């Protein structure tokens, strides 16, 4: 079975990226949406230059995270920081996703917010958005994240993992890779992978100390994922 792929999201610091150059990371994420991890297009461009110096056999792809962006914002970012993937975390429909894919020639990841237990009525409504056939052949991956009422994701909290098979069935049927995010860290990612076998895992706050990326936690997370 192929190793689960790893996405480290919310990078802001050049020195942290430099310390990751030998690690088997598959995707590096930069947050352009409102967040304490938010970066500017110019700042992301400086960070992207570090990816060119990656020393592991596989260089990670760059992912820009946005929530309900307009085309002018995406155009500005892409002019200053050439991303490989645009990840959409809001209520973007399939038409918008397809337009982004066509205009910028990038992969498009669509994130969906999954609620915790006790909010099934809201979560079921959210599920219907992504299970739509309109996304088939448009998005390059589906990403599950914990619902956050302010930022749409990045809450650092896990969602009800028992909901994963619902999305997995859809993603397998249409051959769309499934990523899981939301509250992952070195101590729980092994359980997630063993039980649900997602295509990829996405971590941000779970590899931080005092709000900053901690290279030792990054290494521990990657090691835990790749050994399974």
From TrEMBL:
Class of enzymatic activity (EC top level): isomerase
GO molecular function: phosphoribosylanthranilate isomerase activity
Pathway: Amino-acid biosynthesis; L-tryptophan biosynthesis; L-tryptophan from chorismate: step 3/5
Catalytic reaction list: N-(5-phospho-beta-D-ribosyl)anthranilate = 1-(2-carboxyphenylamino)-1-deoxy-D-ribulose 5-phosphate
Gene3D superfamilies: Aldolase class I (3.20.20.70)
Pfam families the UniProt entry points to: PRAI
GO biological process, one term: L-tryptophan biosynthetic process
InterPro entries, A to Z: Aldolase_TIM, PRAI_dom, RibuloseP-bd_barrel, TrpF_fam
Residues passing through the membrane, by range: none
Record keywords: Amino-acid biosynthesis, Aromatic amino acid biosynthesis, Isomerase, Tryptophan biosynthesis
EC number assigned by the record: 5.3.1.24
Limits of the N-(5'phosphoribosyl) anthranilate isomerase (PRAI) domain: 6-223
PANTHER family (alphabetical): N-(5'-PHOSPHORIBOSYL)ANTHRANILATE ISOMERASE
HAMAP family xref list: PRAI (MF_00135)
Protein family (similarity comment): Belongs to the TrpF family.
Protein name stated in the entry: N-(5'-phosphoribosyl)anthranilate isomerase
């Amino acid at each position: 079975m192929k190793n689960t792929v790893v996405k480290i999201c919310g990078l802001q610091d050049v020195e942290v990226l430099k310390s990751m150059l030998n690690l088997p990371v598959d995707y590096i994420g930069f947050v352009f949406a409102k967040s304490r991890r938010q970066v500017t297009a110019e700042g992301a461009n400086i960070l992207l230059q570090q990816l060119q110096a990656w020393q592991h056999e596989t260089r990670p792809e760059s992912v820009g995270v946005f929530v309900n962006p307009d085309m002018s914002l995406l155009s500005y970012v892409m002019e200053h920081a050439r991303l490989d993937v645009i990840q959409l975390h809001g209520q973007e429909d399939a038409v918008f996703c397809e337009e982004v894919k066509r205009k910028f020639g990038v992969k498009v990841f669509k994130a969906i917010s999954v609620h915790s237990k006790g909010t099934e009525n809201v979560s079921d409504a959210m599920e219907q958005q992504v299970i739509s056939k309109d996304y088939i052949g448009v998005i390059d991956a589906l990403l599950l994240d914990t619902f956050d009422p302010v930022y749409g994701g990045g809450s650092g909290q896990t969602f009800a993992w028992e909901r994963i098979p619902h999305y997995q069935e859809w993603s397998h049927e249409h051959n769309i890779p499934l990523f899981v995010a939301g509250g992952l860290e070195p101590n729980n990612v092994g359980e997630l992978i063993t039980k649900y076998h997602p295509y990829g895992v996405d971590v941000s706050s779970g590899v931080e100390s005092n709000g900053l990326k901690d290279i030792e936690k990054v290494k521990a997370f990657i090691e835990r994922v790749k050994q399974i």
